[in-house]
Amino acid sequence: MSRFVTARSLDEALDEVSHGARIIAGGTDFMIHVRRERLFGDEPSHAFVDVSRLEELNRLDLSSDLPFVGAAVTFRRLETSPEVRSLYGALAQCAATVGSVQIRTLATIGGNAANASPAADGVTALVALGARAKIVSPEGTRTERLEELITGPNRTNLSPEEIIVGFELDRSVRGTAQVFRKIGRRQAVVIARLNVAVCLGRDLSDPRVVVGSCFPSPRRLSAVEALLASGSPGPTLWKEAGLVASKEFVMVCGWRASASYKTPVTAALVIHALESAWEQVEVPDDHR
User: Fold this and answer.
1) Cα–Cα distances in Å, from 280 out to 86, 179, 272, 275?
2) What is the pLDDT of residue 288?
3) Contact status, residue 198 vs residue 275, Cβ threshold 8 Å
4) Does one domain contain both 35 and 59?
5) Would strands 47-50 and 22-24 be described as parallel, antiparallel, or unpaired?
6) pLDDT beyond 60 at 131
7) Nearest Cα to 68, choosing from 109, 32, 114?
8) How far is 180 from 211, CA to CA, in rounded Å?
9) Backbone angles phi, psi at 212, to 5 degrees
10) pLDDT of residue 228
């Protein structure tokens, strides 16, 4: 028989994981993990600790010098928060695409990262925003960039005794536009076949482009960002950026079965996201 504990403090949660309990927050992927354990013959978990009510993991403070999103903040809260929508539009936009309202009410941004699915919408947006995971364990605290924390499909470098408390973000820059776009097999309640997050400023000095659901682990597209930072904004530059993004996909992943679809769609999705972002950037009229 399994044992289930609702942690009343972070110390209690750490004590439970140090004795072999597994973390659960929204629990939307709980049965997926149970089935996977049975399929591969792994030892099933017999103790779980719910961290969804911990104050530290529910903190949402985006207007401070060190913006922070707690790991237990739900996608529904991210979707509806005026502060998130105003300062971190890509995060609000991505949250609105996750599952149904019922799923978004339970699913957490920390769980999305810890599951490390290549198709995770929250991860794509977080990486574009410079997210650094704050991680605690009985041994102490560490901070690590999300693209380094996630090491491959459904893999992280988290130890069983570590808990993600939340994510520190780069400060939102006035005049910068953020866009998240997603393509799936239908219009709603869908896992991304591709997603993209873009941050674009009026001078293109610090562009951010992240494409998800096509690489083994999340990454900013450095070649695309370098091209944008050295170019002149407009349709020609957006098209070149899309082509570079599609070439990077092939270079990293090879010409696999899905490449005939994902290569041109990656280019088109990046172009569309850049166009949308530029339309929202606060630029002088003579530069439009």
Assistant:
1) 13, 9, 13, 9
2) 44
3) no
4) yes
5) parallel
6) yes
7) 109
8) 10
9) -110, 165
10) 98
pLDDT band for position 177 (50/70/90)?
A: very high
pLDDT for residue 75: 97
Domain count, the chain: 2
User: Do 136 and 202 belong together in one domain?
Assistant: no
pTM of the prediction?
A: 0.91
Quick one: 76 and 206 in the same domain?
Answer: no
Q: What is the pLDDT of residues 59-98, one digit of tens each?
A: 999 999 999 999 999 999 999 999 999 999 999 999 999 9
Residue 2 confidence (pLDDT): 77
Angle at alpha carbon of residue 186, lines to 185 and 188, rounded to 5°: 130
List the domain range (segments joined by +) for residue 44.
Answer: 3-168
**Are residues 104 and 201 located together in one domain of the fold?**
no
DSSP state of 44: P
Residues 221 and 196 in one domain: yes
* Average per-residue pLDDT for the chain: 90
Whether 181 and 48 map to the same domain: the answer is no
Clarify whether residues 212 and 141 are in a common domain. no
Q: What share of the chain is helix, strand, coil (3-state, %, to 5)?
A: 40, 20, 40
Nearest to 165 by CA among 140, 147, 148, 129: 140
Structure tokens at 283: 């630029």
Residues 161 and 196 in one domain: no
Q: What is the pLDDT of residue 238?
A: 98
pLDDT of residue 189: 62
Distance of CA 101 to the CA centre of its chain: 18
C-alpha span between 254 and 249 (Å, rounded): 7
Is 247 within 8 Å of 211 (Cβ atoms)? no
Q: What is the pLDDT of residue 167?
A: 98
Beta bridge partners of 143: 134
Instruction: Enumerate the β-bridge partners of residue 3.
Output: 47
